[in-house]
Amino acid sequence: MNSTERHEARYQRRKQKRLQKKQEQFAAADNYDAVFTFDNLYRSYKKCCLGVGWKASTQRYKVNAIVNVYNALRTLQAGKFKSNGFYEFPRVERGKLRQIKSVHISERVVQRCLCDYALVPMLSRSFIYDNGACMAGKGIHFAVNRLVCHLQRHFRKHGTNGYALVFDFSKFYDRILHEPLKQIIDKEFTDTRIAGLVKQLVDDFGDIGLGLGSQISQACALRYPNRLDHYIKEVLHIKGYARYMDDGYLMHESKEYLQKCLSDIRRICDKFGIKLNEKKTQIVKISRGITFLQRRFILTDTGKVIIKPRPRGIVKMRRKLRTFKRWLDEGRMTFADITTSFVSFKGHLKHCNAYGIITRLNALFYKIFYGRYGQ
């Protein structure tokens, strides 16, 4: 046996060992019959009703919940599950028009069961730690804390010297290619029934792209650029890197090296059909601050990280309060709804260094509404 044959033999042994470990650890997640049980579907139904119990479709489903869950189980066991189509509607979010494709609760129950008990456990096992979107125990505050941590680590080594490459994917969901995504699904699942159901749900969105408003879209979109995450961490050796869905950043002391990283990122994105937003993708000095997730992160000379909200959001809320006052006088809005919206926005600001902003917003709120309603 020569050296090439010995290397191949070692590779095959390691491959077989990894496959065996995967089968032992994720046996339940890679088994169609273990995923789609009555108990799993019923728990998924209860989760799907949280926060949307006021909807007529949800109330109709709840009236015969046991029968509906049982019928879904029988349909899945027979391999005859099909989508009922989408309820499409536009939504304007931060000035952007987004087309939402919402599914009926009967399909939402099946998708949640598929994601919670199969798709997310199998796909997330290869995620980097700094992939912080839509995962249990993570979220926006996790991503914010990771950026603060990366800035502090950078300061201990390089002070305020250095640069950050901030990037954003343009129309991320709309550009996801189905064929590479299906190859990922086939690689992760050995049970062809689960893989077939996932690919069927993906194809329901059309020839290209995934729809907003579907849980399976979130899980697949998280996994789709995973190769880019590992390339940046393991090949480019960027420790100060994180991604939150379609937003991300890289930190390094050299601007020239970040320009090289940007070229590599473009190459990988082109391969997967992802396009960078040229207006938001830029290399900035860390000392001047980094804008990420609608917040401004400023690293001071002492190593402290100051988090400021974007001024555009503050201006928008000030305008909203005056609009709410007009709607209140017209009877289109109640004072309780106005208070709920205002307190919710202040809750967002409390995670930033924005004491003065909150004080001025409180003063404006009482100036507009206090004279009429008191405390």
Brief overview:
The chain is of the alpha+beta class and 375 residues long.
Structure notes:
This protein is α+β, with helices and mostly antiparallel strands. The chain is built from 15 helices and nine strands. The strands form three sheets. Strands 4-5-3-6 form a four-stranded antiparallel sheet, sandwiched between helices. A three-stranded antiparallel sheet has the order 7-8-9. Strands 1-2 form a two-stranded antiparallel ribbon. A hairpin with a 2-residue loop joins strand 4 (241-244) and strand 5. The mean pLDDT is 89.
Topology of helices and strands:
Layout: H1 3-25, H2 32-35, H3 38-48, H4 56-63, H5 65-77, E1 86-93, E2 96-103, H6 105-124, H7 140-158, E3 163-168, H8 178-188, H9 192-203, H10 215-223, H11 226-235, E4 241-244, E5 247-252, H12 255-271, E6 282-285, E7 290-292, E8 295-299, E9 305-309, H13 311-330, H14 335-349, H15 355-373
Antiparallel strand pairs: 1-2, 3-5, 3-6, 4-5, 7-8, 8-9
Helix pairs in contact: 3-5, 3-6, 6-10, 8-9, 13-14, 13-15
